[in-house]
Protein backbone atom coordinates (compact mmCIF):
# COMPACT_ATOMS: atom_id res chain seq x y z
CA UNK A 1 0.00 0.00 0.00
CA UNK A 2 2.39 2.66 -1.22
CA UNK A 3 1.51 6.32 -0.56
CA UNK A 4 -1.99 5.54 0.73
CA UNK A 5 -1.90 8.01 3.60
CA UNK A 6 -1.05 11.60 4.61
CA UNK A 7 1.03 12.49 7.66
CA UNK A 8 0.70 15.56 9.89
CA UNK A 9 2.95 17.04 12.57
CA UNK A 10 1.09 19.19 15.10
CA UNK A 11 3.56 21.19 17.19
CA UNK A 12 1.36 22.59 19.97
CA UNK A 13 1.77 24.68 23.09
CA UNK A 14 2.03 21.78 25.51
CA UNK A 15 2.88 18.84 23.26
CA UNK A 16 3.88 17.65 19.81
CA UNK A 17 1.94 14.93 18.00
CA UNK A 18 2.30 13.02 14.77
CA UNK A 19 -0.79 11.64 13.06
CA UNK A 20 -1.57 9.67 9.91
CA UNK A 21 -4.89 9.88 8.05
CA UNK A 22 -6.45 7.87 5.24
CA UNK A 23 -8.46 9.17 2.28
CA UNK A 24 -11.63 9.28 4.38
CA UNK A 25 -9.97 11.54 6.95
CA UNK A 26 -9.85 8.73 9.50
CA UNK A 27 -7.08 8.51 12.07
CA UNK A 28 -4.71 5.63 11.29
CA UNK A 29 -1.81 6.36 13.64
CA UNK A 30 -0.98 8.81 16.42
CA UNK A 31 1.78 9.45 18.91
CA UNK A 32 2.13 12.46 21.22
CA UNK A 33 4.64 13.77 23.76
CA UNK A 34 4.53 16.78 26.10
CA UNK A 35 7.38 19.25 26.52
CA UNK A 36 8.42 21.43 29.44
CA UNK A 37 6.69 24.72 30.23
CA UNK A 38 9.41 27.13 31.39
CA UNK A 39 8.25 30.10 33.48
CA UNK A 40 11.33 32.00 34.71
CA UNK A 41 9.36 35.05 35.91
CA UNK A 42 5.76 36.11 36.39
CA UNK A 43 4.27 36.63 32.94
CA UNK A 44 7.16 34.94 31.12
CA UNK A 45 6.48 31.65 29.30
CA UNK A 46 9.18 29.83 27.34
CA UNK A 47 9.87 26.53 25.58
CA UNK A 48 13.15 24.84 24.71
CA UNK A 49 13.23 24.70 20.87
CA UNK A 50 15.75 21.86 20.91
CA UNK A 51 13.45 19.79 23.11
CA UNK A 52 10.56 20.53 20.73
CA UNK A 53 12.54 19.25 17.73
CA UNK A 54 13.64 16.15 19.66
CA UNK A 55 10.00 15.48 20.58
CA UNK A 56 8.99 15.88 16.93
CA UNK A 57 11.60 13.32 15.83
CA UNK A 58 10.46 10.87 18.49
CA UNK A 59 6.72 11.10 17.81
CA UNK A 60 7.31 10.60 14.07
CA UNK A 61 9.54 7.55 14.53
CA UNK A 62 7.38 6.04 17.27
CA UNK A 63 4.09 6.76 15.49
CA UNK A 64 5.22 5.04 12.31
CA UNK A 65 6.72 2.13 14.25
CA UNK A 66 3.60 1.49 16.34
CA UNK A 67 1.44 1.55 13.21
CA UNK A 68 3.89 -0.74 11.42
CA UNK A 69 4.18 1.80 8.65
CA UNK A 70 7.09 3.17 6.66
CA UNK A 71 7.60 6.66 5.28
CA UNK A 72 6.88 5.32 1.79
CA UNK A 73 3.24 4.85 2.87
CA UNK A 74 2.88 8.65 3.03
CA UNK A 75 2.00 10.65 -0.07
CA UNK A 76 2.84 13.95 1.64
CA UNK A 77 3.33 15.63 4.98
CA UNK A 78 1.64 18.65 6.53
CA UNK A 79 2.78 20.78 9.47
CA UNK A 80 0.71 22.82 11.91
CA UNK A 81 1.90 24.70 14.95
CA UNK A 82 1.37 26.95 17.93
CA UNK A 83 1.30 30.36 16.34
CA UNK A 84 3.24 33.47 17.45
CA UNK A 85 5.70 31.44 19.56
CA UNK A 86 9.05 32.87 18.49
CA UNK A 87 12.34 31.08 17.82
CA UNK A 88 15.57 32.82 16.76
CA UNK A 89 18.50 30.56 15.91
CA UNK A 90 21.94 30.40 14.32
CA UNK A 91 21.67 28.64 10.92
CA UNK A 92 25.36 27.71 11.07
CA UNK A 93 25.00 25.64 14.25
CA UNK A 94 21.25 25.04 14.46
CA UNK A 95 21.32 26.29 18.05
CA UNK A 96 18.70 28.73 19.36
CA UNK A 97 20.05 32.01 20.66
CA UNK A 98 17.36 31.97 23.34
CA UNK A 99 14.42 29.85 24.43
CA UNK A 100 11.27 30.12 22.33
CA UNK A 101 9.11 32.95 23.68
CA UNK A 102 5.57 31.56 23.84
CA UNK A 103 2.46 33.33 22.57
CA UNK A 104 1.17 33.61 26.17
CA UNK A 105 4.26 35.54 27.30
CA UNK A 106 3.69 39.17 28.38
CA UNK A 107 7.25 40.52 28.71
CA UNK A 108 6.76 42.71 25.62
CA UNK A 109 3.99 44.82 27.15
CA UNK A 110 6.19 47.93 27.11
CA UNK A 111 6.93 47.43 23.41
CA UNK A 112 3.21 47.12 22.63
CA UNK A 113 2.31 50.13 24.78
CA UNK A 114 5.02 52.27 23.16
CA UNK A 115 3.67 51.45 19.70
CA UNK A 116 0.23 52.69 20.73
CA UNK A 117 1.63 55.76 22.44
CA UNK A 118 3.69 56.69 19.38
CA UNK A 119 0.71 56.42 17.02
CA UNK A 120 1.99 53.31 15.27
CA UNK A 121 -0.79 51.07 16.53
CA UNK A 122 -3.30 52.18 13.92
CA UNK A 123 -0.80 51.55 11.10
CA UNK A 124 -0.31 48.00 12.39
CA UNK A 125 -4.08 47.47 12.56
CA UNK A 126 -4.59 48.76 9.02
CA UNK A 127 -1.74 46.82 7.43
CA UNK A 128 -1.52 43.66 9.53
CA UNK A 129 -5.13 43.40 10.74
CA UNK A 130 -4.12 42.97 14.36
CA UNK A 131 -3.43 45.34 17.28
CA UNK A 132 -0.06 45.87 18.95
CA UNK A 133 -0.13 43.22 21.68
CA UNK A 134 2.20 40.94 23.61
CA UNK A 135 0.49 38.02 21.83
CA UNK A 136 2.20 38.45 18.46
CA UNK A 137 5.69 37.61 17.19
CA UNK A 138 7.05 41.05 16.22
CA UNK A 139 7.58 42.30 19.75
CA UNK A 140 9.12 38.98 20.81
CA UNK A 141 11.68 39.19 17.98
CA UNK A 142 12.52 42.76 19.03
CA UNK A 143 12.94 41.67 22.66
CA UNK A 144 15.45 38.98 21.67
CA UNK A 145 17.34 41.41 19.42
CA UNK A 146 17.49 44.00 22.20
CA UNK A 147 18.18 41.75 25.18
CA UNK A 148 20.25 38.74 24.09
CA UNK A 149 23.92 39.58 23.61
CA UNK A 150 25.16 39.46 20.04
CA UNK A 151 21.89 38.58 18.35
CA UNK A 152 21.27 41.93 16.68
CA UNK A 153 24.76 41.96 15.19
CA UNK A 154 24.31 38.34 14.07
CA UNK A 155 20.95 39.18 12.50
CA UNK A 156 22.42 42.05 10.52
CA UNK A 157 25.11 39.66 9.22
CA UNK A 158 22.50 37.09 8.18
CA UNK A 159 23.51 34.75 11.00
CA UNK A 160 20.19 34.74 12.88
CA UNK A 161 16.93 33.32 11.54
CA UNK A 162 13.43 33.85 12.91
CA UNK A 163 10.49 31.52 12.71
CA UNK A 164 7.41 30.42 14.53
CA UNK A 165 7.61 26.73 15.42
CA UNK A 166 6.38 25.68 11.95
CA UNK A 167 9.47 27.29 10.41
CA UNK A 168 11.73 25.71 13.05
CA UNK A 169 10.32 22.22 12.35
CA UNK A 170 10.36 22.68 8.56
CA UNK A 171 13.98 23.88 8.63
CA UNK A 172 15.05 20.75 10.49
CA UNK A 173 12.96 18.34 8.40
CA UNK A 174 14.40 19.68 5.16
CA UNK A 175 18.06 19.50 6.17
CA UNK A 176 18.71 22.01 8.95
CA UNK A 177 22.30 23.25 8.69
CA UNK A 178 22.59 21.35 5.40
CA UNK A 179 20.34 23.53 3.26
CA UNK A 180 17.17 23.49 5.35
CA UNK A 181 14.28 25.50 3.89
CA UNK A 182 13.59 28.77 5.74
CA UNK A 183 9.87 29.12 4.97
CA UNK A 184 6.49 29.80 6.53
CA UNK A 185 2.94 30.17 5.24
CA UNK A 186 0.58 33.11 5.02
CA UNK A 187 -1.39 32.13 8.12
CA UNK A 188 1.65 32.12 10.38
CA UNK A 189 3.06 35.27 8.77
CA UNK A 190 -0.22 37.05 9.46
CA UNK A 191 0.39 36.58 13.21
CA UNK A 192 3.62 38.56 13.40
CA UNK A 193 2.49 42.22 13.03
CA UNK A 194 4.99 42.28 10.14
CA UNK A 195 2.99 41.11 7.08
CA UNK A 196 0.69 43.27 4.97
CA UNK A 197 -2.66 41.47 4.64
CA UNK A 198 -3.16 42.80 1.12
CA UNK A 199 0.26 42.07 -0.42
CA UNK A 200 0.91 38.92 1.65
CA UNK A 201 4.53 40.04 2.01
CA UNK A 202 6.72 41.43 4.77
CA UNK A 203 6.22 45.19 5.06
CA UNK A 204 9.26 47.44 5.40
CA UNK A 205 7.42 50.08 7.45
CA UNK A 206 6.24 47.47 9.95
CA UNK A 207 9.70 45.93 10.13
CA UNK A 208 11.06 49.40 10.89
CA UNK A 209 8.70 49.79 13.85
CA UNK A 210 10.40 46.81 15.51
CA UNK A 211 13.93 47.26 14.15
CA UNK A 212 13.90 43.80 12.56
CA UNK A 213 16.31 43.05 9.67
CA UNK A 214 14.38 41.60 6.74
CA UNK A 215 16.95 38.85 6.14
CA UNK A 216 15.91 37.20 9.43
CA UNK A 217 12.47 36.40 8.07
CA UNK A 218 11.35 33.24 6.25
CA UNK A 219 9.91 33.17 2.74
CA UNK A 220 6.10 33.38 2.82
CA UNK A 221 4.41 30.55 0.87
CA UNK A 222 0.81 29.31 0.38
CA UNK A 223 -0.71 27.07 3.07
CA UNK A 224 -1.08 24.28 0.51
CA UNK A 225 1.87 24.35 -1.87
CA UNK A 226 2.01 22.11 -4.98
CA UNK A 227 5.66 23.13 -5.43
CA UNK A 228 6.44 21.88 -1.88
CA UNK A 229 8.38 23.62 0.90
CA UNK A 230 10.94 20.87 0.48
CA UNK A 231 11.27 17.16 1.14
CA UNK A 232 12.29 15.26 4.22
CA UNK A 233 15.84 13.92 4.31
CA UNK A 234 16.63 10.17 4.36
CA UNK A 235 18.86 10.91 7.36
CA UNK A 236 15.92 12.38 9.29
CA UNK A 237 13.08 10.79 11.27
CA UNK A 238 11.21 9.70 8.13
CA UNK A 239 14.28 7.99 6.60
CA UNK A 240 12.94 8.88 3.13
CA UNK A 241 12.18 11.82 0.88
CA UNK A 242 8.56 12.82 1.54
CA UNK A 243 7.12 16.04 0.06
CA UNK A 244 6.18 18.60 2.68
CA UNK A 245 3.27 20.43 1.07
CA UNK A 246 1.02 21.81 3.84
CA UNK A 247 1.68 24.41 6.53
CA UNK A 248 -0.93 26.21 8.63
CA UNK A 249 -1.08 27.85 12.03
CA UNK A 250 -3.01 25.61 14.38
CA UNK A 251 -6.28 27.54 14.45
CA UNK A 252 -6.40 27.97 10.70
CA UNK A 253 -5.59 24.27 10.36
CA UNK A 254 -8.58 23.45 12.57
CA UNK A 255 -10.75 25.69 10.38
CA UNK A 256 -9.67 23.67 7.33
CA UNK A 257 -10.12 20.41 9.26
CA UNK A 258 -13.69 21.47 10.07
CA UNK A 259 -14.16 22.17 6.31
CA UNK A 260 -15.24 25.76 6.97
CA UNK A 261 -14.66 26.69 3.32
CA UNK A 262 -17.65 29.00 2.80
CA UNK A 263 -18.15 32.54 4.14
CA UNK A 264 -20.17 32.42 7.36
CA UNK A 265 -18.87 29.02 8.44
CA UNK A 266 -16.89 28.95 11.67
CA UNK A 267 -15.42 26.79 14.40
CA UNK A 268 -14.22 27.02 18.00
CA UNK A 269 -11.13 25.13 19.14
CA UNK A 270 -10.74 24.24 22.82
CA UNK A 271 -7.07 23.88 23.69
CA UNK A 272 -4.64 25.77 25.89
CA UNK A 273 -6.66 28.79 24.82
CA UNK A 274 -9.85 29.06 22.79
CA UNK A 275 -9.94 30.31 19.22
CA UNK A 276 -13.14 31.06 17.35
CA UNK A 277 -12.67 31.68 13.61
CA UNK A 278 -15.28 32.78 11.08
CA UNK A 279 -14.66 32.48 7.33
CA UNK A 280 -15.33 35.92 5.78
CA UNK A 281 -14.29 35.14 2.19
CA UNK A 282 -11.60 36.61 -0.05
CA UNK A 283 -11.84 40.18 1.25
CA UNK A 284 -10.52 40.98 4.73
CA UNK A 285 -13.05 42.50 7.15
CA UNK A 286 -11.52 44.98 9.59
CA UNK A 287 -12.84 44.52 13.09
CA UNK A 288 -14.33 47.35 15.10
CA UNK A 289 -15.03 45.13 18.09
CA UNK A 290 -11.72 43.76 19.29
CA UNK A 291 -11.33 40.82 16.89
CA UNK A 292 -8.39 39.97 14.66
CA UNK A 293 -8.38 39.99 10.88
CA UNK A 294 -6.24 37.07 9.80
CA UNK A 295 -5.51 34.91 6.78
CA UNK A 296 -7.57 31.72 7.07
CA UNK A 297 -5.69 29.80 4.38
CA UNK A 298 -4.37 30.02 0.85
CA UNK A 299 -4.52 26.95 -1.37
CA UNK A 300 -1.84 27.15 -4.08
CA UNK A 301 -2.33 30.08 -6.45
CA UNK A 302 -5.96 30.66 -5.41
CA UNK A 303 -6.94 33.90 -3.71
CA UNK A 304 -6.36 33.92 0.05
CA UNK A 305 -9.37 33.34 2.29
CA UNK A 306 -9.64 35.58 5.35
CA UNK A 307 -11.17 35.05 8.77
CA UNK A 308 -12.27 37.06 11.75
CA UNK A 309 -10.74 35.53 14.85
CA UNK A 310 -11.45 35.80 18.52
CA UNK A 311 -8.38 34.66 20.47
CA UNK A 312 -8.82 33.75 24.14
CA UNK A 313 -5.59 33.28 26.06
CA UNK A 314 -6.60 31.01 28.93
CA UNK A 315 -9.16 28.23 28.75
CA UNK A 316 -7.67 24.72 28.87
CA UNK A 317 -4.65 26.12 30.72
CA UNK A 318 -7.05 27.16 33.50
CA UNK A 319 -7.82 23.46 33.94
CA UNK A 320 -4.06 22.79 34.09
CA UNK A 321 -3.81 25.52 36.74
CA UNK A 322 -6.40 23.74 38.90
CA UNK A 323 -4.41 20.53 38.51
CA UNK A 324 -0.80 21.66 38.74
CA UNK A 325 -0.78 24.75 40.93
CA UNK A 326 -3.67 24.05 43.32
CA UNK A 327 -4.02 20.23 43.27
CA UNK A 328 -7.80 20.64 43.15
CA UNK A 329 -8.04 17.89 40.55
CA UNK A 330 -5.77 14.99 39.68
CA UNK A 331 -6.49 15.14 35.95
CA UNK A 332 -8.63 17.08 33.51
CA UNK A 333 -11.20 14.27 33.21
CA UNK A 334 -12.25 14.82 36.84
CA UNK A 335 -13.72 18.22 35.97
CA UNK A 336 -16.70 16.66 34.21
CA UNK A 337 -17.87 14.77 37.29
CA UNK A 338 -17.17 17.60 39.72
CA UNK A 339 -18.87 20.26 37.61
CA UNK A 340 -21.82 17.98 36.99
CA UNK A 341 -22.26 17.30 40.71
CA UNK A 342 -23.62 20.82 41.35
CA UNK A 343 -26.52 22.59 39.68
CA UNK A 344 -24.62 25.83 39.10
CA UNK A 345 -21.48 27.67 40.23
CA UNK A 346 -23.11 28.95 43.42
CA UNK A 347 -22.78 32.58 42.39
CA UNK A 348 -19.03 32.22 41.78
CA UNK A 349 -17.26 33.57 38.69
CA UNK A 350 -13.66 32.84 37.73
CA UNK A 351 -11.99 35.13 35.17
CA UNK A 352 -8.66 33.44 34.28
CA UNK A 353 -6.84 36.57 33.08
CA UNK A 354 -3.46 35.16 34.05
CA UNK A 355 -1.65 37.06 31.28
CA UNK A 356 -4.22 39.77 30.64
CA UNK A 357 -7.29 39.41 28.47
CA UNK A 358 -7.23 38.86 24.72
CA UNK A 359 -10.27 39.29 22.45
CA UNK A 360 -12.43 41.26 22.58
CA UNK A 361 -10.95 43.27 25.48
CA UNK A 362 -7.20 43.38 24.80
CA UNK A 363 -6.38 44.41 28.37
CA UNK A 364 -2.78 43.59 29.30
CA UNK A 365 -3.44 45.25 32.69
CA UNK A 366 -5.99 42.60 33.69
CA UNK A 367 -5.20 39.71 36.02
CA UNK A 368 -7.16 36.67 37.16
CA UNK A 369 -9.94 36.96 39.71
CA UNK A 370 -12.42 34.74 41.50
CA UNK A 371 -15.44 36.73 42.65
CA UNK A 372 -18.81 36.07 44.28
CA UNK A 373 -17.43 33.71 46.93
CA UNK A 374 -19.41 32.66 50.00
CA UNK A 375 -18.93 29.92 52.59
CA UNK A 376 -21.40 27.85 50.62
CA UNK A 377 -18.91 27.37 47.77
CA UNK A 378 -16.95 24.13 47.33
CA UNK A 379 -14.26 22.98 44.93
CA UNK A 380 -17.04 21.61 42.72
CA UNK A 381 -18.37 25.16 42.31
CA UNK A 382 -14.87 26.41 41.42
CA UNK A 383 -14.45 23.67 38.82
CA UNK A 384 -17.85 24.49 37.33
CA UNK A 385 -17.01 28.21 37.31
CA UNK A 386 -13.78 27.35 35.47
CA UNK A 387 -15.71 25.49 32.76
CA UNK A 388 -18.23 28.33 32.58
CA UNK A 389 -15.39 30.83 32.12
CA UNK A 390 -14.38 29.01 28.94
CA UNK A 391 -17.94 29.31 27.64
CA UNK A 392 -18.47 32.93 28.69
CA UNK A 393 -15.25 34.00 26.98
CA UNK A 394 -16.42 32.24 23.81
CA UNK A 395 -19.71 34.14 24.01
CA UNK A 396 -17.78 37.43 24.33
CA UNK A 397 -16.05 36.61 21.06
CA UNK A 398 -19.18 35.34 19.28
CA UNK A 399 -21.06 38.57 20.06
CA UNK A 400 -18.17 40.70 18.75
CA UNK A 401 -18.03 38.54 15.63
CA UNK A 402 -21.73 39.08 14.92
CA UNK A 403 -21.32 42.85 15.28
CA UNK A 404 -18.39 42.90 12.84
CA UNK A 405 -19.73 40.52 10.21
CA UNK A 406 -23.49 40.87 10.52
CA UNK A 407 -23.63 37.05 10.50
CA UNK A 408 -25.68 35.49 13.29
CA UNK A 409 -24.20 32.26 14.62
CA UNK A 410 -26.76 29.51 14.05
CA UNK A 411 -24.64 26.67 15.40
CA UNK A 412 -21.06 26.14 16.52
CA UNK A 413 -18.66 23.45 15.31
CA UNK A 414 -16.19 22.55 18.05
CA UNK A 415 -12.92 20.65 18.25
CA UNK A 416 -9.91 20.17 20.50
CA UNK A 417 -9.16 18.01 23.49
CA UNK A 418 -11.64 19.64 25.90
CA UNK A 419 -14.61 18.76 23.69
CA UNK A 420 -14.64 15.27 25.25
CA UNK A 421 -16.06 16.99 28.35
CA UNK A 422 -19.81 16.67 27.86
CA UNK A 423 -20.65 19.03 30.74
CA UNK A 424 -18.47 21.71 29.16
CA UNK A 425 -20.15 21.28 25.78
CA UNK A 426 -23.63 21.49 27.31
CA UNK A 427 -22.63 24.66 29.18
CA UNK A 428 -21.36 26.12 25.91
CA UNK A 429 -24.71 25.49 24.22
CA UNK A 430 -26.55 26.96 27.23
CA UNK A 431 -24.41 30.10 27.47
CA UNK A 432 -24.34 30.76 23.70
CA UNK A 433 -27.96 29.80 23.10
CA UNK A 434 -27.14 27.84 19.93
CA UNK A 435 -26.51 24.14 19.21
CA UNK A 436 -22.95 22.87 19.60
CA UNK A 437 -21.72 20.16 17.21
CA UNK A 438 -18.69 17.90 17.70
CA UNK A 439 -17.27 15.98 14.72
CA UNK A 440 -16.27 12.32 14.76
CA UNK A 441 -12.61 13.30 14.27
CA UNK A 442 -11.89 15.77 17.06
CA UNK A 443 -8.21 16.29 16.17
CA UNK A 444 -9.13 18.70 13.39
CA UNK A 445 -5.90 20.69 13.72
CA UNK A 446 -3.79 17.76 12.53
CA UNK A 447 -6.48 16.82 10.01
CA UNK A 448 -6.41 20.34 8.52
CA UNK A 449 -2.64 20.16 8.02
CA UNK A 450 -3.10 16.78 6.35
CA UNK A 451 -5.85 18.18 4.10
CA UNK A 452 -3.60 21.06 3.00
CA UNK A 453 -0.76 18.68 2.13
CA UNK A 454 -3.07 16.17 0.44
CA UNK A 455 -4.74 18.81 -1.74
CA UNK A 456 -1.31 19.97 -2.91
CA UNK A 457 -0.30 16.52 -4.19
CA UNK A 458 -3.71 15.49 -5.53
CA UNK A 459 -4.44 12.97 -2.77
CA UNK A 460 -7.76 14.81 -2.44
CA UNK A 461 -9.21 16.41 -5.56
CA UNK A 462 -10.62 19.66 -4.16
CA UNK A 463 -12.19 21.27 -1.12
CA UNK A 464 -15.66 19.93 -1.96
CA UNK A 465 -14.31 16.37 -1.84
CA UNK A 466 -13.35 16.97 1.80
CA UNK A 467 -16.83 17.96 2.94
CA UNK A 468 -18.07 14.38 2.73
CA UNK A 469 -15.40 13.39 5.29
CA UNK A 470 -17.02 15.56 7.99
CA UNK A 471 -19.47 13.66 10.19
CA UNK A 472 -21.15 14.74 13.41
CA UNK A 473 -20.43 12.70 16.51
CA UNK A 474 -22.74 14.51 18.97
CA UNK A 475 -24.86 17.65 19.23
CA UNK A 476 -25.87 19.63 22.33
CA UNK A 477 -29.01 21.79 22.29
CA UNK A 478 -29.42 24.77 24.68
CA UNK A 479 -31.38 24.02 27.86
CA UNK A 480 -31.24 27.33 29.72
CA UNK A 481 -34.07 29.83 29.47
CA UNK A 482 -33.32 33.21 27.94
CA UNK A 483 -33.62 34.88 31.37
CA UNK A 484 -31.18 32.40 32.92
CA UNK A 485 -28.72 32.90 30.09
CA UNK A 486 -28.78 36.71 30.19
CA UNK A 487 -28.62 36.89 33.97
CA UNK A 488 -25.58 34.62 34.09
CA UNK A 489 -23.86 36.59 31.32
CA UNK A 490 -24.51 39.91 33.09
CA UNK A 491 -22.75 38.51 36.15
CA UNK A 492 -19.81 37.45 33.97
CA UNK A 493 -19.47 40.96 32.53
CA UNK A 494 -19.35 42.41 36.06
CA UNK A 495 -16.67 39.88 37.02
CA UNK A 496 -14.55 40.78 33.99
CA UNK A 497 -14.63 44.46 34.95
CA UNK A 498 -13.13 43.55 38.34
CA UNK A 499 -9.95 42.31 36.63
CA UNK A 500 -9.12 45.60 34.89
CA UNK A 501 -6.34 47.98 36.02
CA UNK A 502 -4.75 45.37 38.23
CA UNK A 503 -1.17 45.90 37.07
CA UNK A 504 0.54 49.03 35.79
CA UNK A 505 1.47 48.94 32.12
CA UNK A 506 4.00 51.56 31.06
How would you sum up this structure, described in words?
It is a single chain. This protein has 506 residues and is of the alpha+beta class. Helices cover 33% and strands 21% of the residues. It contains 16 helices and 23 strands. The chain has helices at 49-66, 109-117, 121-128, 137-147, 151-156, 165-173, 186-189, 204-210, 250-257, 316-324, 334-340, 379-405, 422-432, 444-456, 463-467, 482-497; strands at 5-11, 15-21, 27-34, 46-47, 74-81, 87-89, 100-101, 161-163, 183-185, 195-196, 201-202, 219-221, 230-231, 243-249, 266-270, 274-281, 292-297, 305-312, 349-351, 369-371, 412-415, 436-439, 472-476. The protein has a seven-stranded mixed beta sheet with strand order 17-18-16-15-21-22-23. Strands 3-2-1-5-14-13 form a six-stranded mixed beta sheet, with helices on both faces. The chain has a two-stranded antiparallel ribbon with strand order 4-7. Helix 10 packs antiparallel against helix 12, helix 11 crosses helix 12 (379-405) and helix 12 (379-405) packs across helix 13 (422-432). The model has no long low-confidence stretch (mean pLDDT 93).
In summary, what is this structure?
This protein is an alpha+beta fold. Helix content is 33%, strand content 21%.
Distance between the termini: 60 Å
**Extended strand count:** 23
Number of helices: 16
Write down the Rg.
22 Å
Largest sheet, in brief, is: 7 strands, mixed
What percentage of residues falls in helices of 4 or more residues?
A: 25-40%
Q: Could you tell me the strand content as a percent range?
A: 15-25%
Q: Note the overall shape.
A: globular
Oligomer: single chain
Class derived from helix and strand content: alpha+beta
Runs in which pLDDT lies below 50 for 5 or more consecutive residues are: none
Strand order, largest beta sheet? 17-18-16-15-21-22-23
How much is the average pLDDT? 93
Amino acid sequence: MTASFIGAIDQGTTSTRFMVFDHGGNEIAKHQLEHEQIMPRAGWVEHDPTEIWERARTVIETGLSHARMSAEDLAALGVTNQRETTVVWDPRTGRPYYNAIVWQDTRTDRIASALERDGKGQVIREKAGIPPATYFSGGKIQWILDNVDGVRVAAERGEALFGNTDTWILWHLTGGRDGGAHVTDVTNASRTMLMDLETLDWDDELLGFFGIPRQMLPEIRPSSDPTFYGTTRPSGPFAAEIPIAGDLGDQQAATVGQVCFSPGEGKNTYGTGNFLLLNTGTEPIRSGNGLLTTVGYRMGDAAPVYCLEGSIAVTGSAIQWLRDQFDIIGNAAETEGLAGSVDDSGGMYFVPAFSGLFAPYWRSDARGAIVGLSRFNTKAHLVRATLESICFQSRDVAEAMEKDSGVHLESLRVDGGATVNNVLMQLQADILGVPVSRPVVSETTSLGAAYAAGLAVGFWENEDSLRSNWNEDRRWEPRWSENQRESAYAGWKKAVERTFDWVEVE
